[in-house]
């Protein structure tokens, strides 16, 4: 499999993220401020015993499921793949490399999503340490902006890769 090193890195990143969430989540209070209004004021709470499994499921599960489902769909022989000049890039002599490049792009996006979700969790942990509980809204918006820029750059890179017929 051409993407084996990328898959191993992604799996290690998933494991590190799970450890990070469990480790930082241990310092949360029994009742966690988990939802925040504009301005950063807490307006929703839940027990830590609910928050931690939920954030683990979302942070680890969403990127992992996205990779698994996308890769499975791409691996089907008759998979419909929407690419510019698809007939050229999915020609049997180019298909293997095209799928490898598409899978690598998916891994990069899902890694960025995983890191953003870990960052959002870290902001929740920090918010729960402050009195009164308040989310760093500028930190969240800055992190979101970085995630969107990385996603936009990745999308541009991906589309550029398939823009022209080589």
What strand order characterises the main sheet?
A: 1-2
- Report the span from N to C terminus: 24 Å
Task: Report helical residue fraction.
Answer: over 70%
Could you give the count of β-strands? 2
What is the number of independent domains?
1
Keywords:
mainly alpha, elongated, 166 residues
Summarize the structure.
With 166 residues, the chain is mainly alpha-helical. It is 70% helix and 7% strand. The protein contains five helices and two strands; from the N terminus they run H-E-E-H-H-H-H.
Describe the structure.
By secondary structure, this protein is mainly alpha-helical. The chain has one domain. It has 5 helices and 2 strands; from the N terminus they run αββαααα. The chain has helices spanning 4-25, 48-75, 86-89, 92-129, 137-161; strands at residues 31-36, 42-47. The chain has a two-stranded antiparallel ribbon with strand order 1-2. It is elongated. The chain starts with a helix and ends in a 5-residue tail after the last helix.
Summarize the helices and strands and which ones pair or pack.
Elements: H1 4-25, E1 31-36, E2 42-47, H2 48-75, H3 86-89, H4 92-129, H5 137-161
Antiparallel strand pairs: 1-2
């Amino acid at each position: 499999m051409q993407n084996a090193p990328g898959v191993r890195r992604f799996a290690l990143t998933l494991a590190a993220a799970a450890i990070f969430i469990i480790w930082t989540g241990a310092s949360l209070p029994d009742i966690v401020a988990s939802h925040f209004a504009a301005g950063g004021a807490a307006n929703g709470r839940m027990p830590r015993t609910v928050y931690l499994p939920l954030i683990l499921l979302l942070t680890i599960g969403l990127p992992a499921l996205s990779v698994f489902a996308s890769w499975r769909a791409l691996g089907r022989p008759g998979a419909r793949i929407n690419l510019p000049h698809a007939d050229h890039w999915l020609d049997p002599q180019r298909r293997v490399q095209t799928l490898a490049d598409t899978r690598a792009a998916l891994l990069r996006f899902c890694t960025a999503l995983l890191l953003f979700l870990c960052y959002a969790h870290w902001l929740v942990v920090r918010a729960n340490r402050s009195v009164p509980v308040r989310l760093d809204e500028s930190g969240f918006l800055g992190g979101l902006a970085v995630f969107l820029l990385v996603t936009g750059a990745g999308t541009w890179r991906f589309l550029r890769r398939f823009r022209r017929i080589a």
